[in-house]
């Protein structure tokens, strides 16, 4: 217990850093994921190709390699931002590929007749997708999106290797101060457990209110 009580501020900074990364990266992942899902079902071939390429590249790229590409590659093109922002970009873009596939699977569960009926009323593709298809698809994709964002929270640990303040990175100064590495990791694991349980609770509530009853 001394490891926690004597280093509460250090753990607190790491915990808040992980929460910040998770929240911002989740928002970016949801926005990009829904957009790419729309691209993948769009009637325009170039949009479908872009969405497919986005998912294929990001899903098959190791997250650590993507971090290196963002952290070291973007500054070469004149884009210099805080490391935390770079970490959010890497996490958000990587996770968006999995969000995209979850949303696309949800879109495929909506009967084709729903879209055809909307188009027969004169609705455009954008109107049909946003007002008819996505609201119905959302109900079936709540669980997989929740699982994906839980994975994002745990993947945020990689950011600590790139000078970003987050929970896992607290073990380094604790080890230097001579604290037990085992107990250091016990409290780090407890912090991640709090974050993941919070996400699980949020999506449990969403599924309870809007999810498909099975």
TrEMBL record:
It comes from the Bacteria. CDD domains: TM_PBP2. Pfam families: BPD_transp_1. GO terms for cellular component: ATP-binding cassette (ABC) transporter complex. It is found in: Cell membrane. InterPro entries: AA_ABC_transptr_permease_3TM (IPR010065), ArtM/GltK/GlnP/TcyL/YhdX-like (IPR043429), MetI-like (IPR000515), MetI-like_sf (IPR035906). Residues 15-203 form the ABC transmembrane type-1 domain. The keyword Transmembrane helix applies. PROSITE patterns: ABC_TM1 (PS50928). One of its GO terms (biological process) is amino acid transport. The chain crosses the membrane at residues 21-41, 53-74, 80-100, 181-206. Belongs to the binding-protein-dependent transport system permease family. HisMQ subfamily. This is Amino acid ABC transporter membrane protein 1, PAAT family. It comes from Streptomyces melanosporofaciens. The lineage of its organism: Bacteria, Bacillati, Actinomycetota, Actinomycetes, Kitasatosporales.
């Amino acid at each position: 217990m001394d490891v926690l009580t004597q280093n509460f501020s250090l753990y607190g900074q790491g915990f808040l850093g992980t929460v910040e990364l998770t929240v911002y990266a989740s928002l970016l992942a949801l926005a990009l994921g829904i957009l790419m899902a729309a691209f993948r079902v769009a009637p325009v071939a170039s949009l479908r190709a872009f969405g497919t390429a986005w998912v294929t590249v990001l899903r098959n790229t190791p997250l650590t390699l993507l971090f290196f590409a963002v952290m070291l590659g973007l500054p070469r093109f004149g884009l210099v931002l805080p490391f935390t922002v770079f970490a959010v970009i890497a996490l958000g873009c990587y996770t968006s590929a999995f969000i995209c596939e979850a949303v696309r699977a949800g879109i495929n569960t909506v009967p084709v007749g729903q879209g055809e009926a909307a188009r027969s009323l004169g609705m455009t593709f954008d109107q049909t997708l946003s007002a008819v298809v996505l609201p119905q698809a959302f109900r079936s994709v709540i669980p997989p999106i929740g699982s994906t964002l839980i994975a994002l929270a745990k993947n945020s640990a990689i950011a600590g290797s790139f000078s970003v303040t987050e929970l896992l990175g607290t073990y380094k100064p604790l080890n230097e101060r001579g604290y037990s590495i085992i107990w250091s990791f016990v409290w780090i694991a407890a912090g991640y457990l709090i974050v993941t349980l919070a996400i699980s609770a949020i999506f449990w509530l969403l599924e309870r209110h809007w999810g498909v009853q099975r």
